[in-house]
Design goal:
8-stranded mixed β-sheet; about 45% helix; globular; Rossmann fold; single chain; 8 strands
Length: about 300
């Protein structure tokens, strides 16, 4: 009787962790697509609503996935690619567009794979998404004849942009806001904070399921290991000290792992990926001056 009871408890615990692992991995791979949140996105229309001319554009990732976006032309031969976060879309970057365009830069906003109106059916938190960023840079170079290309990634977009820039020399400068230092470390944080569950064995199960479902290892998504390859190109790390989703320590780890030249700004914000909301004037000035200086 005792043996049967013990076995039942073990089976129950195993089922709980397998269920949690499946749910957890599903949240990563298939992000919820909700309506545009004006509190976070600020602008939920098109660039035209902001008084900016734009083009609807289509291009492909370096592995052929179809991507959709907006291109806002500037009056200089410099462009910035805006890369949104997990579960977001191209609208997330609109808050930064006006000042970049005022400085003469063109801006390309697009939906990452498995987001918005782009193709693709899985999300990998940066491993495949880096191909989307490289595809955007290749399109700017081939179609718009722009050589001086920068990237601005937010959250998952920051991680995707770091991984892309580490491999793609077409990208000359990068701003990375609210990125995680490694996917495994971030999932460990989420397990304890949001679910009250131990990371072992939960994240081991998530890791296995994630790999089986996407072909990608959690440990292959580690921006802090890739970022040193960006040097001597310039980068700028931004993170909120009060970030309520990706802890401030992730931003510091990314910055400390990077080579020179580099800069860091702790925006006075308390919500994940809302550095602009923390101090719009300072945020816009610092980002615009960074790109203006490094995309000459």
């Amino acid at each position: 009787m005792i043996r049967k009871t013990a076995l039942g408890i073990v089976v129950f615990i195993l089922v709980v962790f397998l269920g949690a692992g499946w749910y957890f991995s599903s949240q990563i791979i298939h992000p919820a697509k909700g309506p545009c949140d004006k509190k976070h996105f600020i602008y939920c229309g098109t660039p035209e609503d902001m008084g900016l001319k734009y083009e609807d554009v289509s291009f492909t990732a370096s592995d052929g996935v179809s991507l959709k976006g907006w291109y806002i032309p500037g009056n200089r031969k410099e462009a910035v690619i805006m890369v949104h976060g997990h579960g977001a879309d191209r609208h997330e970057g609109l808050r930064w567009v006006r000042v970049l365009n005022r400085f003469g830069m063109s801006v390309l906003l697009f939906d990452l794979r498995n987001h918005g109106t782009s193709g693709g059916d899985v999300t990998t938190m940066g491993f495949f998404e880096k191909r989307d960023v490289s595809g955007a840079a290749a399109w700017l170079k081939a179609i718009k004849k722009i050589e001086q290309i920068g990237v601005f990634g937010v959250s998952m977009g920051a991680s995707s942009s770091i991984l892309a820039m580490a491999e793609d020399k077409n990208i000359k400068a990068g701003v990375f806001e609210a990125g995680f230092s490694s996917l495994r470390k971030e999932l460990n944080d989420i397990a304890s904070r949001d679910f009250g569950l131990p990371s072992v064995p939960l994240i081991n199960i998530v890791s296995l399921l994630f790999r089986l479902r996407t072909g990608v290892s959690l440990d292959a998504v580690a921006p802090e290991k890739a970022i040193a390859k960006i040097s001597p190109r310039s980068l700028f790390v931004i993170h909120c000290p009060g970030d309520d989703y990706i802890h401030f320590s992730h931003g510091k780890r990314i910055f400390e792992s990077a080579g020179q030249p580099k800069d860091f700004w702790a925006s006075p914000c308390t919500t994940h990926a809302e550095a602009w909301q923390g101090d719009p004037d300072v945020a816009e000035r610092r980002v615009a001056l960074f790109f203006s200086k490094n995309l000459r």
